[in-house]
């Protein structure tokens, strides 16, 4: 039973590590897009009306998302450390394994929420960047 829990924890940690790498990549893409779109404004102001009807994320909200992402990374590191302890001493602390499973589930839930928020931010940023990338006709 403890071996199965350890394997499940290992799989979950690997999945979280992959998601973290994906989120880092997406974050870097968003930062690059954000930098490219910071100075871009509509010459005639026609896009302003279209963009005002779309939900927008403020810089503060994007920073909050990044802050939550960093907190999740810290929790992931903590979970990985707990997993290493369990692999070294699997039979000495069974309650700790249950706590690690609960914590990993909480991390997964938070990660899913952050992914959803990040996807929304990406969509919004893409919608804002695309009109500025199209050549004038």
Strand content: under 5%
Class from secondary-structure proportions: mainly alpha
**Residue ranges: pLDDT <50 for 5 or more in a row?**
40-47
Measured as a percent range, the helix fraction is over 70%
> SSE order, as H and E?
HHHH
Average of pLDDT: 75
* Number of contiguous helices: 4
State the distance separating the first and last CA atoms. 66 Å
Overall geometric form: elongated
User: How many β strands by DSSP?
Assistant: 0
Seen as an oligomer or otherwise, the chain set is single chain
| Largest sheet properties | none
Estimated radius of gyration: 20 Å
Task: Please supply descriptive tags for the structure shown above.
elongated; 137 residues; single chain; mainly alpha
Task: Provide a compact summary of the structure.
With 137 residues, the chain is mostly helical. It has helices at 2-37, 46-52, 59-88, 94-133.
Your description of this structure?
It comes from Operophtera brumata (Winter moth). Keywords: Coiled coil. The chain has 137 residues and is mainly α. The protein has a domain of 77 residues. It is elongated. It starts with a helix and ends with a helix. About 6% of the residues have low confidence.
């Amino acid at each position: 039973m403890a071996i199965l829990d350890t394997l499940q924890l290992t799989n979950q940690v690997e999945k979280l590590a992959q998601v973290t790498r994906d989120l880092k990549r997406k974050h870097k893409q968003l930062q690059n897009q954000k930098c490219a779109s910071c100075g871009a404004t509509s010459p005639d102001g026609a896009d302003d009306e279209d963009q005002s009807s779309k939900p927008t994320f403020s810089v503060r909200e994007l920073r909050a998302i990044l802050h939550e992402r960093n907190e999740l990374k810290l929790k992931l590191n903590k979970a990985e450390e707990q997993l290493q302890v369990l692999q070294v001493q699997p039979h000495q602390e069974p309650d700790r394994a249950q706590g690690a499973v609960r914590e990993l589930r909480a991390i997964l839930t938070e990660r899913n929420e952050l992914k959803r928020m990040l996807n929304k931010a990406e969509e919004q940023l893409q919608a804002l960047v695309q009109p500025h990338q199209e050549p004038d006709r």
